[in-house]
Amino acid sequence: MKRVSILLSAFLVLIFGAGQAIADTRAVYTISNIPVDKTAASTREAEAQAFASAKVQGLYRLMEKLTLPEDRARLGDSFYSYANANEMTAAVDVDDERRSTTVYRANLSVVYNPIRVRAQLEQWGVPYIDRQASVTLLAPASGGAAWADAWPEQNSGALSPYVKGRSTSSSAGWSELAGEASSVGARNAVIASLNGSEGAYSVQLTRVTSAGNTAIGTTGTVETLSDAVDAATAYMDAAWKRQSVIRGSDGQTSANATVRYSSLRSWNGVRSALSNSPLVSGLQVNAVARNGALVSFVFAGSQDRLETDLGQSGVVLSQSASGWVLQLAGDRSF
User: Fold this and answer.
1) Calpha distance 159→201 (Å, rounded)
2) pLDDT tens-digit profile of 208-238?
3) Domains observed in the chain
């Protein structure tokens, strides 16, 4: 297998930042497995046509990834033109390249420049989300070994990244899944329960956290196990987008809250959930004590939406006489 990047890694560091942020952002803005097959007067010309085609195909797929259907409908044909796609491209990687004097075939991956993509989406007035959800433990259920084997070990580039875990019961709770979730750095799990039979499969998705089990939804029917995996993955991504995309009409609300915790680990869990929430901005820690802290922040959308978002990380938002209280579910030894 041949793998060649057409741009220098130093250039990518400038675009994507440093540390873990490089990997996460690059993964989100990379569209992989774009098959190309072009014939032209020369292999160089065929290669050029293939790269041009991949940049446009990848841009369509990137928009499907970052935006909701009703929002990306605003994008006109000029957005998907080769000139525009080329301007937003940071790199092209090549897999399984085959060429002759007139033919070029390969699987390509296109890496897009997040700064330029964001600027264009904002110019078009299209809401988007390019921040990944916290990693999830994906637990297949009700489909046996074949269903478990149909899932890849992970999908690190998706908006809702997961690491595959062991098969479980469709009614499993956090106590059964917490240990394995913790081992892969996950604060939540999703049980993917297979329904139906070949030719008419559907997948029921349930999120499991220390705060309890919450239904995500059920996919439409598909024919194969592979299709069922794709449908479930797409459903989780769509659910994350609907939960996280911020529109101008959502408004901004200032909030103050007390964080209660019994350990440094619990405090870091709540703080991480707030810091990583796409709905929360301007987080400030105003006071810290042995078992509590005072924080302030701004959030977009409704309180219910914020509760759902934080609940994905096992954080419970409740109301007390003195205002909002945040804590990890089950952390009650103060």
Assistant:
1) 24
2) 998 889 999 999 999 999 999 999 999 999 9
3) 9-124 (3.10.129), 136-244 (no CATH), 248-328 (3.30.70)
